[in-house]
User: Fold this.
Amino acid sequence: MQITIPYSPRPLQQDIHTQLSKHRWAVLSIHRRAGKSVLCINELIKRALTNDKWNPRYAYIGPTYKQTKSIIFDYLKFYAGVIPGSKFNEQELSCTLPNGAKISLLGSENPDSLRGNYYDGIICDEYAQINPRLFPEIIRPALSDRKGFCYFVGTPQGMSNDFYNKYQHGLKDKTWYTKIAKASETGIVDQEELDAALELMGKNKYRQEFECDWVAALEGAIYGDIVEKIENKGQVGRVPYDPTYPVSTAWDIGISDKTVILFFQQVGRAVQIIDYYENSNEGLPHYINVINGKDYVYKNHYGPHDLEQREFTNGKSRREIAYELGLRFKIVPKLSIEDGIHYTQLLLNRCWLDVDTCKKLIDALRNYHRKFNDTLQVFNMKPVHDWSSHACDSLRCLAVGLEELRDDKEITQRIADNNYNPLGMNHEQNF
Assistant:
């Protein structure tokens, strides 16, 4: 019996379906209104109908159960509902097809609903919003018995999440399929509508949602625009150690959280950040060994004010302990977060960042952001505390330290930009 499902794929969708049939792993970054959810559901229906194994099992996973139920279940009922003998379970959001194949719709906030099951295939939609631990801990083992597939789908939300990591992996692994579908290239949304969206959404949000731009600044990003600016000027690239200048460090010190150390050189007005180190659950001796293990000649070590706090065990401050271990800190004064951010924004304009050794710092600077308060319709003053906070706090320590502890403090100098290029290139030269 021939079954006609009411789905006529666009050329983009048809091309993706063809590629998915040849690949076990895929990353699809598809612009808004291109029909990616419809594509996902019909891919699962096709695979389920054509699978001749015993009791095939497939799953669609969205960020939340509520989102999956309100949008995706209607698509599943519409497209699979024309198949005679298909049965839908509203309670568990599933469809069982006549051949016994079952498609389940799940939310990622309840990972236990996946444990203990096998799957022939899983599609993770809006993967940037899904906990990255879900795939290695639960999804990947569930695919092993049947050698099932997994496709990661969504639109970018910066470079500091597992969706971007999977995309980068896919570019390097020839067994993976990767696809970026930009609105400016697909022709699915007409130009008039795109222009209207750009005007209402703003440049960064538009680039993220319609142009699938990984590096577009996050909404509420504090340093994102400056990082983009200095990248365009050629200040993010290879910044080698210059042995004719001393190296200084700036720290953000955690106990259970991360400790971060930046290594930088001052050459004229330029600040060249040449190295980066982070770790957690280690004491000061470990980090001082890291400092001593590098072949640098040091000048200053800038540390946060909480180095003055005394330990309960021996009554000594961490500054005193560091001094006994051979490291003399300059303690950076405690300023308001806003003042510190202001100093950091000024400093960034004259920073040069090594793209390899300082990748974690660069990613953190792109991600560091304020959360939007829906009730007050403003961004919160205090930045979100997440994985990017410690790296950005170390740069804030650097910025405040250079400003507040400089020898010529009586001379007010607020030059945020400069023309110095440590690589002897003009600003427009690419790395």
Observations:
- The chain is about 35% helix and 20% strand.
